[in-house]
Amino acid sequence: MKSKLTAVALAAVVVAGTAATAIPASAAPAKAEPTRCHTADLKAGFATGEDATPEMGQTENQTQAYIWFTNKSKRTCTLSGFAGVDMVGAQTTDGTWSLARSSEKPVKFTLEQGDTVDFSVTLLPVARSTPQKEKFVPATFLVTPPNETEHFTLKWPFGGQILKQDAATHPATYLNPVGF
User: Domain of life, per the record (predicted)?
Assistant: First the structure.
């Protein structure tokens, strides 16, 4: 009986070994798709280059500020969607303003280690002479990457004031998805 079991086990090993070598290399399992980037995988900040600085001194048109995310992890990850952005005001009357989203459709971005992607925040600046109750003076931005719950706290580096429309249905200050 012992020799019969040994023979069956040996035959199974030979068949399994043969089957494994018969699979072509092209049929090998595909590399797993990267998963989404988590807050811990990223660093964030305001783009401050000359062409990225919002024109907060003018009050005739909307302007844009840009916030970037860089993959600081050793793995490839993806970002898609809208970041969460809450502006915290410098005036006691400002409070916190959660920015509305644009109608732009999000696109998925794959970030390898060191890659950066940004998104824009559209702002409507107002003059210093605007009554206090009609203006919002940004102090910090709480920026949460898409699909995450932990945020970055970014100090607003550009000065100026924004028309306060935190309760408006279609405010002139809003954010775009990652990559816009």
Answer: Bacteria
